[in-house]
Amino acid sequence: xxxxxxxxxxxxxxxxxxxxxxxxxxxxxxxxxxxxxxxxxxxxxxxxxxxxxxxxxxxxxxxxxxxxxxxxxxxxxxxxxxxxxxxxxxxxxxxxxxxxxxxxxxxxxxxxxxxxxxxxxxxxxxxxxxxxxxxxxxxxxxxxxxxxxxxxxxxxxxxxxxxxxxxxxxxxxxxxxxxxxxxxxxxxxxxxxxxxxxxxxxxxxxxxxxxxxxxxxxxxxxxxxxxxxxxxxxxxxxxxxxxxxxxxxxxxxxxxxxxxxxxxxxxxxxxxxxxxxxxxxxxxxxxxxxxxxxxxxxxxxxxxxxxxxxxxxxxxxxxxxxxxxxxxxxxxxxxxxxxxxxxxxxxxxxxxxxxxxxxxxxxxxxxxxxxxxxxxxxxxxxxxxxxxxxxxxxxxxxxxxxxxxxxxxxxxxxxxxxxxxxxxxxxxxxxxxxxxxxxxxxxxxxxxxxxxxxxxxxxxxxxxxxxxxxxxxxxxxxxxxxxxxxxxxxxxxxxxxxxxxxxxxxxxxxxxxxxxxxxxxxxxxxxxxxxxxxxxxxxxxxxxxxxxxxxxxxxxxxxxxxxxxxxxxxxxxxxxxxxxxxxxxxxxxxxxxxxxxxxxxxxxxxxxxxxxxxxxxxxxxxxxxxxxxxxxxxxxxxxxxxxxxxxxxxxxxxxxxxxxxxxxxxxxxxxxxxxxxxxxxxxxxxxxxxxxxxxxxxxxxxxxxxxxxxxxxxxxxxxxxxxxxxxxxxxxxxxxxxxxxxxxxxxxxxxxxxxxxxxxxxxxxxxxxxxxxxxxxxxxxxxxxxxxxxxxxxxxxxxxxxxxxxxxxxxxxxxxxxxxxxxxxxxxxxxxxxxxxxxxxxxxxxxxxxxxxxxxxxxxxxxxxxxxxxxxxxxxxxxxxxxxxxxxxxxxxxxxxxxx
Length: 900
Prior knowledge:
Layout: H1 20-37, H2 39-55, H3 84-106, H4 115-130, E1 143-145, H5 151-160, H6 166-170, H7 203-220, E2 231-236, H8 243-246, H9 249-254, E3 260-266, H10 281-292, E4 295-299, H11 306-311, H12 316-323, H13 326-334, H14 337-343, H15 349-355, H16 360-369, H17 376-388, E5 394-399, H18 424-434, H19 458-469, H20 491-494, E6 504-505, H21 507-518, E7 528-532, H22 544-548, E8 550-551, E9 571-572, E10 578-579, H23 584-595, H24 597-600, E11 606-612, H25 617-629, E12 635-639, H26 658-663, E13 668-671, H27 676-691, E14 703-707, E15 713-714, H28 724-730, E16 733-736, E17 751-756, H29 760-775, E18 778-783, H30 787-802, H31 810-815, E19 822-825, E20 844-847, H32 858-865, H33 869-882, H34 888-898
Parallel strand pairs: 1-2, 2-3, 3-5, 4-5, 7-10, 7-11, 8-9, 11-12, 12-14, 13-14, 17-18, 17-19, 19-20
Antiparallel strand pairs: 6-15, 16-18
Helix pairs in contact: 1-2, 3-4, 3-5, 3-18, 3-19, 4-5, 4-17, 7-23, 13-16, 14-16, 23-25, 29-33, 33-34
């Protein structure tokens, strides 16, 4: 009789069975094991067989989940070098001071987080004592992405190390006095300590992957040997819900980034409750990372569990651990032994028998305290295995208790992320638990004291000796004393001053041509890092493929289909272009790594990232803020810009607002150049400011955002009048007057000033002709290269006035004496030019492309939004009519004439 539970050959199996008899024997063996020893034993044997096959190089699908136990058995754990007792004392001081700092700060109402570091203390301390290389180590040291909410613990360790003092700890989250500490890792606020801003969740893991990848890029291109650098990213299990957290896992595995380790603190809690209340986050993450090709190490249980696993002869314990959801694990953390006996052990007769052999104290030790992430030997074993693993990145899933050592009021409580302080009694209990030499009398007026064993204590000497052996303090940010980059040859920029004659050239193409010239520069050419998200051909960059090559750590293992063409698709191990595929987020992470290489590696790189402008600031603005926080430098190029220039693509591609978003970022210098020579002048100034000799008081830690257009038009020569170069950089200059444009207006003709940016200046120039020829109005045309820089200058003038200093905004200086009203127009919403309205002395009006974009021809779209030349004429006449300088009927006549 056939066993109905036996495994049957699949009728859908497409592979021919060359030996059905042998197959049947294997299946019968599995059936026999399941029948005799139970399904758990059969599953165990299958897992071990699959693991053996994988180790032998037999091509099989990877096993995505393993049992809910430690990946490294206790017997296989290496000894921890150094003094474990000493490191435990150091960790105790750090735990105390982190909690004291936040509690003392709570009286000022500034907040803070205690529970995260309490759970992760050993994850950091083990690394600081044995793994994290400092800036004096080989290469550039390691790059540490610290979990943002754990920052109090990092400050506490820096205090113990003598890098911070009590006054600074007391100014945690109070920076305005100049001696405070930022709430989270912020390089712009504490640039000697923090390298990477991480608290905007999801950006840390994404950036860590691309940082590790960029390290390899530098090595493969011969810029710097970074092979000794390792990237460590400390993350929360709740943070892994962010799509950016897992967006680039496949890239890391595909490029075999074994210089990267994720350490995920699995305390099973996010801000409001369990991460996976009804499921198991560790198992979910294991499957996700294994499926992406990562090496996974689970560090779940402490040594107290060893006895339980030894007693588990039937597999019932392992099976039960896989069944219990995370929220119930948290409940066990807060309940007594009787509850655990009944709910956990009582679910299986074999477990009930096991529980009879366990004391209540043993049960509570296991379920309340003993987690892999709280024991140095467990963490050390995982870290050592991670750095020794080759061929793939590693993720360590370390289970901890959120609020560990903070007392019963904190541990595993749903609200502990928002709990900002401990009572004096709770601190005294914590002191006793940690065995710290702090007296009751040290609590003066109910204020918890900071604890420090002394600058010459064994603990501090040990800490400093360990850091010295590993290459100096960590974390640390260091800007190496590198010489400013020499300016490229002037001819690269000057060639644009002549214009294009009768040839139509889009400003996008002008920028690409400029870059082609600049990457040939003998001094600085190799430092350019072109970044593009699978749109190089759209932007006319395919000509760079054969000359620069597309970076690939594998080189080119195939013959490209277009190999016989001049601009064939060339990949190379030392390729210069980062062509990322369809990922704006990944491209921005690339840009951030390259733009901060001057500090991370002491190697100045010049990244430019070119993208559909609609898919930049709108889509990845959080990363632009990260870029500013991290003090990055480089050029962001918003191509196919404007709301009306990208014909036929529709509203999701029609950018009418990116300069508005960019203007909110203090580190972004936003320009909307109209002509090729303006593009060249802005890039030249950007290279000087970010990479050359800085002027006194000038902030080099800025980045440029240029909008460029896909509308081919004749490019004029640069006007040969004074002040053009200054005006391009500062944001405004007069391109022409009615007279210099060859227009002879009537005597005493009314006059108006037309301000245009980007492609809109061409509509203004046409309107200038129509106003003169058909309405007898003289118009001067101005190029507004940067509305936001004009605004910033004006704001600085206002601030100076409050200090008693007289300063006239540049926009007011430029327009001084200009006759008539001002009409501003751009291919963006009116809010863009309206940024400067309050500082313009003349009557002000504006036109813009407000609303949703639409698919149509450029002409139809501009008529729809009322920004074409004819609409400008009507708006200009309306302004002049309001001043009594033209007849009111002229406005109505113009509307009828142009069909508006």
